[in-house]
Amino acid sequence: MDRVAKLASQKAVVIFSKSSCCMCHAIKRLFYEQGVSPAIYELDEDARGKEMEWALVRLGCNPPVPAVFIGGKFVGSANTIMTLQLNGSLKNLLKNAGAIWL
Question: Tell me, what CATH number does 78's domain have?
Answer without folding.
Answer: 3.40.30.10
